Amino acid sequence: MEEAKYPIGIQSFENIRRGGYLYVDKTAYIRRLVSYGAYYFLSRPRRFGKSLLLSTIEAFFRGRRDLFEGLAIDSMDWDWAEYPVLHLDLSGKEYTETGQLDNILNEYLSQWSDRYGCDVAEGADVDERFRAVIRKAAEQTGKQVVILIDEYDQPLLKSLHDEKLSEAFRRKLQAFFSVVKTMDPYIRFAMLTGVSRFSKVSVFSGINNLNDISLDMGFNAVCGITEAELTDYFTEGIAGMAAMSGLSAESLRRRLKEDYDGYHFAYRSEDVYNPFSLLNTFYKKRFGSYWFKTGTPTFLVKVLERSRLPIPRLNGYRCTEEQLSGSDVYLSDPVPLFFQTGYLTIKDYDERFNQYILGFPNREVSEGFVNFLMKSYMRGVDTSNMITDFVRAVEAGDAERFMSLLQSFTADIPYDLIKGTGRKGEDDGRRYEAHYQDMMYIVFKLMGFYTHTEYKTSDGRIDMVVETPGYIYVMEFKIDSSAEEAMKQIDSKGYAIPFRSSGKEIVRIGASFSTATRRLDQWLIAFGE
User: How many CA atoms are closer than 13 Å to the CA of 466, on its beta-carbon side?
Assistant: First the structure.
């Protein structure tokens, strides 16, 4: 049987269908969208299929029934008439200058004006030109207009750290998008997609009739691939890859789930696989960090540093739906941005407090992000020679060895990195403690160990708990104090007691960091509770 063709990087619905590429049928969602509403907004991470979704909607409204043969929407009672479609894509630009947004908007407006014979002067404001194009397209064709705007927020995301430029983009986009609301009689359907919903920066104020389906359970899987779709569309691919790798089909599916599944875009919804990583894995017949490597989260790390949010809090963070939907407070609370960009996802829901609980979706994202953080926190430090020794020492219970390695580690970290990573309002001592706690969390997490910071007990909070198949390390850190003082706190507060029934050997470690030497200074190790 001929091997499936996987549409790597192809975002055109027509090209996928005409080229005989594998297409996971999402057209039932389009039926619901066009049947029950007219104005929508959808937020999804990059490379999750937003552009393909809009391309499919465009083909539908252009009356291309031939492309939908055999798909769910083919049987829909629809006239399949051609509607005028205005499709705007704001991705692919750096947006370092205000003129770049003007240029791309005017370029599209000129194309549409030529297509529909609109004679508004090119020097007119973009909102005036947009309004004229919509009216002219409807009048010329006798059909209401379909407006599709892909990656609307790219100018805003690209300018997050340039307040003046960002404000200029906001004003321009507000004026442009507000046209949609004023032209309602001329519009049949409109959809915006993006990564973030900047709800309080005026972009949406002009078109507040948008139905935001980003957290709607009914559209959780409108982008991405579900477990059922994996079975329906990829069974042959799984069998072929399993045979090549020597794994059973069951083992391969388990690995796929661990690496690429786990996304949730609604309250208690089914798991969704990352489509980009999944397609690349089947195409190349090997596992890899395909999605993560296509975009480094540099700007997210900058946001994280400015917000002073402790890194360990990312996994298990609680927030409301209002927080999750907006990005307006990203400097004080960057977590919604981490969710919207795909580095965190919904893991659970607390009905009592109406809070979403977030976490890393899968191994690709967890390991990739922690590895990226490690490089950011330890710039200039060569870790390649100590990783193997470190892992072996932790797994073997050789606490003296891995603490010595950590001492070497911390001795090489530049002072300016420590100085700049404290929480707002903290003194120098707490700043050092926060930095080293973040750093040690990253190190242990990167090595694949279960790591928990600020572990709550009945009598306090343990700075760090690290668990391996054979050992549980209970760790307390002090700044400019002594290892004896740290160990005394572990023992006096009974920090090791909650783990006595684990069946694993407990190792207590009291450690001290010195602000004078800027490194791990001394430690004490004791076995048992």
Answer: 23
3-state SS assignment for residue 58: helix
Contacts of 319 (CB under 8 A, 6+ apart): 333, 335, 336, 355, 356, 358
17-43 tens-digit pLDDT: 999 999 999 999 999 999 999 999 999
Element (H, E) at 40: strand 39-43
Q: What does 158-215 look like in DSSP terms, one character per residue?
A: HTTT-HHHHHHHHHHHHHHHHHHHHTGGGEEEEEEEES---TTTTTTGGGTT-EE-TT
Distance CA 35, CA 37 (A): 6
Closest CA to 334 of 121, 115, 157, 74: 157
Q: What is the biggest distance separating any 2 CA atoms in the chain, rounded to whole angstroms?
A: 83
Phi and psi dihedrals of 242, rounded to 5?
-65, -45
Rounded to an integer, what distance in angstroms lies between the CA atom of residue 443 and that of residue 446? 5
Give one DSSP letter per residue of 84-152, joined into a string. Answer: -EEEEE--S----SHHHHHHHHHHHHHHHHHHHT----TTS-HHHHHHHHHHHHHHHHSS-EEEEEEST
**CA separation (Å) from 378 to 285, 375, 381?**
34, 5, 5
Helix (H) or strand (E) holding 512: strand 505-514
Whether the model pTM is above 0.90: no
User: What are the structure tokens assigned to 262, written together?
Assistant: 């786990």
